[in-house]
User: Which sequence fits this backbone?
């Protein structure tokens, strides 16, 4: 399960989004339309492998490419303290 960390604001601008952290560990992170779609699915509780399969179909790319991009986004958002992950 993925959720936004306390104090993080998610702002949508068209098909893109911006996550803004507050407080001592303030951070700013912009996601394009594919990153926004990944985040939406994570916040809905969809498992990472299922996200990769779904987006591979939607955007006509390989699941391994989507999974690699997803892993990078997750690592960055966790490092910036913008999301919290609890893997089942």
Assistant:
């Amino acid at each position: 399960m993925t959720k936004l960390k306390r104090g993080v604001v998610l702002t949508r601008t068209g098909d893109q989004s911006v996550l803004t952290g507050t407080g001592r560990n303030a951070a700013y992170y912009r996601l394009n339309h594919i990153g926004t779609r990944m985040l939406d699915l994570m916040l809905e509780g969809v498992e990472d492998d299922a996200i990769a399969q779904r987006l591979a179909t939607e955007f006509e790319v390989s699941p391994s490419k989507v999974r690699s991009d997803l892993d990078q986004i997750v690592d960055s958002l966790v490092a910036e303290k913008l999301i919290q992950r609890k893997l089942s």
